[in-house]
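Design review, sub-item: ligand-bound model
Attendees: FS, YL, KQ
YL presented the inputs for the 2-acetamido-2-deoxy-beta-D-glucopyranose complex:
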Amino acid sequence: MQSSLSLLVVATATTFALFIQEITADQTYVPNLRRRSPDDDDDAPSLCALLIEPSGYPCTEHNIQTNDGYLLALQRVSSRNSNLRVQPGPPVLLQHGLFMGGDAWFLNSPEQSLGFILADHGFDVWVGNVRGTRWSHGHISLSVKDKDFWDFSWQELAFYDLAKMIQYINLITSSKTFIVGHSQGTIMSLAALTQPDIVEMVEAVALLSPISYLEHITAPLVQRMVGMHLDQMVSAMGIHKLNFRSNLLIDLLDSLCDGHLDCNDLLTSITGVNCCFNNSRVDFYLEYEPHPSSAKNMRHLFQMIRKGTFSQYDYGRFKNLRLYGQTKPPAFELSSIPKSLPLWMSYGGSDALADTIDLQHTLKELQSTPELLYLENYGHLDFIVSAKAKEDIYDHMIGFFRLLGKSGSS
Ligand SMILES: *[C@@H]1O[C@H](CO)[C@@H](O)[C@H](O)[C@H]1NC(C)=O
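KQ shared the predicted structure:
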């Protein structure tokens, strides 16, 4: 007891020390962060140029502006086969997870990666990138160095970013869109789909590692961070941006892994055992992941883990009363997602973040009965980078989309 307590104290002290270094490091790290307008274009290559076009896929960059002033990039990808390009198929929007960006859908070979596979099946593929990621372009008036830039959680990603992406695709294609979300992309989708004006632009939704309730997360490292109130520490220290790319934050994670907690495999202690992770590609993945997000986003998720709620951000009783007109933050009503919206979900028995008990909770509250695909040995990352994801998941998902297209409901 004594020794685990002192370990915790050491870990906490180390955490503080590392965060202080992180702030200092961040202040000296000025290049490429000052993007204020879409014209003020950065020299950094785009996602299209860096990852998608080199594999032979036509790709165009689209810039959109959210209603609260964030500038986001969307990529539109089509098939390598020019016959399929003549008449573009139905649009599908890919929405990545936390600490990831639109690159997540293109990290394996064209035969293995969902973004490429959908394009090869003739879908009109749109790639979402939320605020704060490497591919987003800042804000009309805020700099990424302003704390207000990072004043968001996944609920803003749902109501502003995702809503604007769907609206834009709807405008350009004059068609309802399919949505595929992974992890944070699923909680964003579920929250957004409680809004009737968004649902009416959506054809169907496929969720990989679906999350809404987070009460039963089993990832030991996440439990530990929640237990030691890392979110509150970070916020008390005035840290607004989380950037896990720095070696310092990697060191921090290592420092949380002391003693009884087995973090030999850091990724596993966060995401669960991933059955089909290709270890020889890790260096390549790390060229793209992880992307930054806000400390407030982590805090919102930690609130949900502690309370078992699927609710808006909790500001504390008084500010809640002022903002929401009630002392508790309003809950998202999954039951207001229309029964007529076709839903498809795939979840894994080894996923330490999207727990099956939490998924049962989600399912109980939905009016509709989604089609489910359970993969016993899949962990959280397998849904994106499993070397066998095509056979295991994507072919089934595409079958589901195709069947809907045939019934000709729209
Ligand atoms: C794993 O990655 C390596 C390096 O990129 C690649 O050569 C190999 O084909 C991959 N294995 C599988 C099963 O995809």
